[in-house]
Amino acid sequence: GESVGLHLPTLSVQEGDNSIINCAYSNSASDYFIWYKQESGKGPQFIIDIRSNMDKRQGQRVTVLLNKTVKHLSLQIAATQPGDSAVYFCAENPTGNQFYFGTGTSLTVIP
Amino acid sequence: GAVVSQHPSRVICKSGTSVKIECRSLDFQATTMFWYRQFPKQSLMLMATSNEGSKATYEQGVEKDKFLINHASLTLSTLTVTSAHPEDSSFYICSARPGTVNTEAFFGQGTRLTVV
Prior knowledge:
- The complex is a heterodimer of chains A (about 110) and B (about 120).
- By secondary structure, chain A is mainly beta.
- In chain A, about 0% of the residues lie in helices and about 50% in strands.
- Chain A is built from no helices and ten strands.
- In chain B, strands 2, 4, 5, 6, 9, 10 and 11 form a seven-stranded mixed sheet that branches. In chain B, strands 1-3-8-7 form a four-stranded antiparallel sheet, with no helix packed on it.
- Chain B has strands at about 5, 10-15, 20-25, 30-40, 45-50, 55-60, 65-75, 75-80, 90-95, 105, 110-115.
- In chain B, strand 4 (about 30-40) and strand 5 (about 45-50) form a beta hairpin.
- With about 120 residues, chain B is mainly beta.
- The mean pLDDT of chain B is about 95.
- Chain B contains no helices and eleven strands.
- The chains are: A mainly beta (about 110), B mainly beta (about 120).
- The interface between A and B is medium-sized, with 33 and 33 residues.
């Protein structure tokens, strides 16, 4: 497989501030990436995706940045809200249909 | 978006018994589905790729005789945890992609398995 699961790093931000969540992916052949949000006891939910021919993509309140040189992704959440508290994973798609998940970051928004 | 449904959402079983988890794509057909395992405060680990009409492809280190996968139709894949042990207790999640290239994967709501 790809990245090995480790205990989640954590990030705490004040409500209204911007959040930046980082992810290192492992396979230089990966050409498609997704950020997922996972709430406790639930399956992951799609946030935003990016293809390897792009280095930035914006959605509603979220922006994903891709740096293929160092195999790094970041997710920026603007004006973070309490409902954004969750675990965030990046997932890479190297070959075929499989997605491999990064370590994840637990985001806590402080009201 | 597309819907993937898992059943059951929670199951408790005794050591030595087998448990079957179902994964259904409700509004699309999926020739491949994926099974993940997630321990508390850890990431999702891909266990296997379920292929409709053929054998599943297992990731390195995953015992195929322990985790039996059947993908009998384009909308249903099942994962059977055989001879379950307490260390098999985990959160199992399935996913499927409506398309192939550069399309998102949709996830089921997960199954919390507890082996006592």
